[in-house]
Amino acid sequence: MVGGGSSAYVIAEIGLNHNGDVEIAKRLIDVAARAGANAVKFQKRTPEISTPEHMRDVPRETPWGTMTYLDYRRRVEFDRGQYIEVGDYATLHGLDWFASPWDVPSVDFLEDLNVVAHKVASASLTDTELLEAIRETGKPVILSTGMSTMEQIDRAMGVLNTDRVILLHATSTYPMEPEEANLRMISTLRDRYAGVPVGYSGHERGLQISLAAVALGAVAVERHITLDRTMWGSDHAASLEPAGLEHLVRDIRVIEAALGDGVKRVFPGEQAPMAKLRRVGA
Questions:
Q1: How far apart are CA 109 and CA 134, in angstroms?
Q2: Which pLDDT value is given to residue 31?
Q3: In a domain, 278, yes or no
């Protein structure tokens, strides 16, 4: 369950930070499980479809030598056997696992592996064909809203046409500066789409903004994770290292406990100070 008074659902975004290596992916799953996250998330692409035409032949320097951007995308994709291996590993560690499909064949690929949900990346919010394919699965949908206008979000919600959707406020800058966080969008989305759980997907450095999002009512938090921010790859710099994820989950739970229920009462811990300090009774 997400929302409805449940604890914030923490998604550890592995994405492509495994760099095409199953063992790195398993180590990141270990990190997520140890920190107390609820889920790990990957990204699934069919490179020949999802790679923009103008990017395909652009040279890319990689740990495996210089290659085209398209070949790099192929190099870091997990195949079915590798996804089964990491998915089973996540399940055995008590974690939900799912991915962001970037094209329709990737939806079918993930459905064959029986993922628990589908995540729509901010970049895919305007891909109507992809949204329709995800809608047809009947699975819960997590929709990130970075790089999008309200009109585009309205249209995406109309295409999905499901009550099994979670919206994530996001700003798609890597890494994101505080001035671009715009956390008041959490309440804006909650008011606009009544009854839809609203969370936060962060790409900032540090923890403060994600923690503030929880204090403002975010029911889910997604953050990229890495073994080391200095590793090669485009998302590592905006990711949390293991200690950072542990602190994030710990502090989210503290904030949730501290928010309380809004009902004024005299707590047991106040009884002794009241007896000592209050001179005039009610």
A1: 12
A2: 98
A3: no
The CATH code of the domain that includes 112 is 3.20.20.70
Q: Does residue 164 fall inside a structural domain?
A: yes
Domain residues for the domain of 200 are 9-259
Q: Are 125 and 149 in contact (CB under 8 A)?
A: no
Helix, strand or coil, per DSSP, at residue 95: coil
Q: Which pair of tokens denotes residue 73?
A: 């995308």
CB 202 within 8 A of CB 218: no
Pick the closest to residue 80 from 108, 61, 55, 52 (CA basis): 108
The share of the chain scoring above pLDDT 70, in percent, equals: 100
Residues in the chain: 282
Asked whether residue 70 is domain-assigned, the answer is yes
CA dist., res. 140 & res. 126, Å (int)? 18
Residue 237 has pLDDT above 90, yes or no: no
Contacts of 222 (CB under 8 A, 6+ apart): 10, 11, 13, 41, 142, 144, 168, 199, 200, 201, 202
Residue 264 is assigned to a structural domain of this protein: no
For residue 146, what are its two tokens?
């970075």
